[in-house]
Structures are given as structure tokens and as C-alpha cells.
Amino acid sequence: MFKDLSQGAKTKNKADHQMPASETQLKLASILYYKVYGTELPDRNYNKQDIDYIIDQLNQILVNGEDTLNNEIVH
């Protein structure tokens, strides 16, 4: 939740986002995606940054009812 403003943390965070998404992140995204769209999350090589974004957007859809992914090239 809190940002570490040191240069090392910024570099590490950038490197973390390039890493493949974890199995747990993929499962969460898949569950949320199915709950929103009634179909499975497309099978792709998602990196951590992609999955973090997808999870965030799906949560917003469930909370606010705004489908921001409908116009994005994610599906």
C-alpha cells in the first residue's frame, strides 16, 4: 500500500512487473473473470503487470458495475 521511494525499490518493482504472473494471481484473475463474463480467462502468457491490471479492473467492475475491460484488448 505504501510506496517506497528509494531507487532500489523502483528498480525492483519494474523487474517484478516483467515476471510471469504467479499461479495464485492467475487463479484469482480466472475466478473474477468467470464471475464477470461467465467464461474462462483467455489462456495467455500473462506477466505480473498484466494480471495485476486485469484483477484491478475486474474488481472495479464487480464493485462499481463499470465494465472498463469491454473496450480494452484483453480478451
How does this structure look, described?
Residues 1-21 are annotated as: Disordered. There is one protein chain. This protein has 75 residues and is an all-alpha fold. The chain has one domain (18-71). The chain is built from three helices and no strands. It has helices spanning 7-18, 23-37, 48-64. Helix 2 (23-37) packs parallel to helix 3 (48-64). The longest helix has 17 residues, at 48-64. The protein starts with 6 loop residues before the first helix and ends in an 11-residue tail after the last helix.
Evaluate the radius of gyration: 14 Å
Q: Please count the beta strands (DSSP E, at least 2 residues each).
A: 0
Span from first to last CA? 28 Å
SSE pattern: HHH
* Overall 3D form: globular
Beta-strand portion reads: under 5%
Number of helical stretches of at least 4 residues = 3
| Share in helix | 55-70%
Class from helix and strand fractions: mainly alpha
Low-confidence stretches: 1-11
Largest sheet: none
- The number of distinct structural domains comes to 1
Mean pLDDT: 78
Region (Disordered): 1-21
Reconstruct the topology from this structure.
Elements: H1 7-18, H2 23-37, H3 48-64
Helix pairs in contact: 2-3
Features:
3 helices; 75 residues; mainly alpha; single chain; disordered N terminus
Kindly summarize this structure in a few lines:
By secondary structure, the protein is mainly α. Helix content is 59%, strand content 0%.
